[in-house]
Amino acid sequence: ELFVHLDAQPLVFTVRGIRYFGPRFKHLGVDIAAMQSKVDFMIAFNAWIIHQRIFEERKAQVRTQVETAWSLLEYWVGREKAGMSRADAQAEAIAAVGKLRYSGVEYFWINDLGKPVPKMIMHPTVPALNGKVLDDAKFNRADWAQRGKEGDEIRLEPPRNLFVTFNETVESAGEGFVAYDWPKPLATGGATTELFRKMSYVKGVPEWGWVVGSGIYVDDVWMVARASILKAVLIGLVFVVLITALLASVSARMSIAKRWRRWRAWTGASWWKRAVMRVACARRLPSCPRSRERY
Q1: What's the gap between Cα 276 and its chain centre?
Q2: Helix H or strand E segment including 161
Q3: Which of 289, 234, 245 is closest to 267 using CA atoms?
Q4: Mean pLDDT by 10-residue block, N- to C-terminus, for the chain (295 residues)?
Q5: Other Cβ atoms within 10 Å of 105 Cβ, number
Q6: pTM > 0.90
Q7: Whether the Cβ atoms of residue 40 and residue 16 lie closer than 8 Å to each other
Q8: Which of 28, 99, 157, 205 is least enclosed by beta carbons within 10 angstroms?
């Protein structure tokens, strides 16, 4: 908390807002109390805006990466059309996509469009899944989907199988997002018992009946947003302090000017006028110089 005094009126500024203690500075035309609700509203609104911006940036990041991997697969589809055998083209495509990484550790997987539950074609970090039907209960965590880049958002209740949801999204719009809770890998091996929010983007390769996808964790979006908000609030606080200092300076100048006028009125008066002013000020009459200087 930062305490500032203007004409002996204490103000307290906090990150949450501005609280005002004591009379308002009407002679300066400033109503500090009215700033409380405005500051609270602006912080809350900016928090939502920053959160949405960061979230959309994460979505755009994973979509761009998946589209890169998809373009690589399309290249090998083209090689097949040019005369290469499908088996060789798919083997080369799997090897190429399996080596791709971004952000240091993020990867891509490929599953098929099999029904009722798809099979894993290639998973670079868990090769034991390759060729297996993905019907394990641990995959029943998909609770949100967006079909297409800008499609409608769908809440899934209860949570559904991840890979079934991936395929439904691709069959409906060719591509899209799916969100779910998933453990994080540990540097020492294995994974956490706690679940974290993750967002995946998937896109279909219709010529081969494949789906390529990748996911990134988005559990830290609010933490990043809070850091940005705190930075903005601190900058705003500095601005408020500067404005407050300016008001204090103006108030001090006005106070000095008042004292100067009183001194001039007192020293420039004769002895009998001084006596009249003493009586007027003692009885708080309008003829007292102090009374006139208030307006």
Answers
A1: 67
A2: strand 153-161
A3: 289
A4: 32 39 43 57 68 84 96 97 96 97 93 97 95 96 93 92 97 96 84 91 97 92 66 70 75 64 59 64 63 44
A5: 9
A6: no
A7: yes
A8: 157
